TrEMBL record:
TM helices/strands, residue ranges: 30-48, 54-74
Segments for region (Disordered): 1-22
Keyword Transmembrane on entry: yes
Keyword field: Membrane, Transmembrane, Transmembrane helix
Protein name listed in UniProt: MYXO-CTERM domain-containing protein
């Protein structure tokens, strides 16, 4: 009977990288573009003393884009 709490003994075979599709290649540049625009808009809205909810919205968009870039990097990296 196998032990359900035992960690596998051998190293796992590396997974092959997922095939690059047209959509997959366009995600990273779009995320970078949205990140740069949202950070710039956040800086401008903060410096111009515009409503803080607008600046917070741009900050939230920037945080989402940064998170998306990190997730995209870890899902598509080569080992």
């Amino acid at each position: 009977m196998s032990d359900p709490y035992q960690i596998s003994e051998g190293p796992e075979a590396p997974r092959p990288a997922p095939p690059a599709t047209a959509r997959g290649r366009a995600v990273r540049p779009l995320l970078w573009l949205a990140l740069v625009i949202s950070v710039a808009a956040n800086v401008v809205s903060s410096a111009a003393d515009i409503n803080m909810f607008i600046g917070s919205g741009f900050g939230l968009i920037a945080l989402t884009c940064a998170t998306g870039l990190i997730v995209h990097h870890y899902r598509h990296r080569r080992r």
